[in-house]
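Run log // design_07
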């Protein structure tokens, strides 16, 4: 099974802005992820979100457990703090030189329901593992990140492996690399043409979703002219702009 990307090859997935998506995107990109309501009102205005709409959205998000409120300051909930960590890792993935080893996770638990299986698949995909065949997940051991061994231990076993199959061939079979690269280039081209604040905000939200699907492979396993680094650089620059607007 191949790792899924967020959109088909070369197509840009631009989703309509809502007050909730604007607030979440702003807080997910802010460190620490909290803002007074007066700053939120000021920052979301260029994206077409009015004050009354924003306050109604904030109330719903608190009730839904997305945000916590202390006086007039809104902060991401613990659940979304975990999402922010994943997003930070997607934008600034930490890697080490690859020595040829692969991480391998083998599912050992049986009798799990559909929801449990789906949750485990989502967790393994978030770790940038890909499924070779049912119950066997792997990737090159070049990432520096925390693997929740205590969570996986009841349902899976982790190993270090060196597959016999050529590494470039195996990587191309596990991930749709050409499709990911085509979409990344389409996003970069779209960003170059986007001028309005709302258009740029929507485009960079799509960039984050796409970076979450980047397998972050060793350079020797990637096609030529891989656009992962330029896409990360573009997003980091935009994030600094937004942070500057919040600070001002």
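design_07 sequence
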């Amino acid at each position: 099974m191949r790792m899924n990307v967020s959109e088909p090859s070369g197509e840009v997935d631009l989703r309509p802005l809502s007050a909730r998506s604007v607030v979440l995107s702003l807080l997910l990109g802010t460190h620490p992820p909290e803002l007074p309501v007066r700053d939120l009102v000021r920052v979301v205005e260029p994206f077409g979100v009015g004050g009354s709409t924003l306050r109604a959205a904030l109330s719903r998000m608190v009730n839904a457990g997305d945000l916590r409120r202390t006086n007039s300051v809104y902060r991401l909930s613990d659940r979304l703090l975990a999402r922010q960590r994943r997003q930070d890792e997607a934008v600034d993935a930490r890697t080490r030189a690859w020595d040829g080893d692969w991480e391998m996770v083998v599912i050992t638990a049986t009798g799990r329901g559909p929801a449990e299986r789906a949750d485990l698949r989502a967790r393994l995909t978030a770790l940038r593992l890909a499924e070779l065949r049912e119950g066997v997940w792997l990737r090159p051991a070049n990432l520096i990140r925390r693997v929740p061994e205590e969570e996986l231990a009841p349902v899976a076993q982790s190993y270090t492996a060196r597959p016999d199959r050529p590494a470039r061939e195996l990587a191309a079979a596990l991930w749709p690399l050409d499709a990911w690269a085509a979409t990344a280039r389409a996003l970069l081209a779209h960003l170059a043409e986007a001028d309005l604040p709302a258009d740029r905000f929507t485009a960079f939200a799509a960039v984050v979703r796409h970076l979450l699907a980047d397998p972050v492979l060793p350079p020797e396993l990637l096609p030529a002219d891989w656009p992962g680094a330029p896409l990360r650089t573009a997003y980091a620059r935009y994030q600094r702009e937004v942070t500057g607007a919040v600070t001002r």
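Confidence is low (pLDDT under 50) at residues 1-8.
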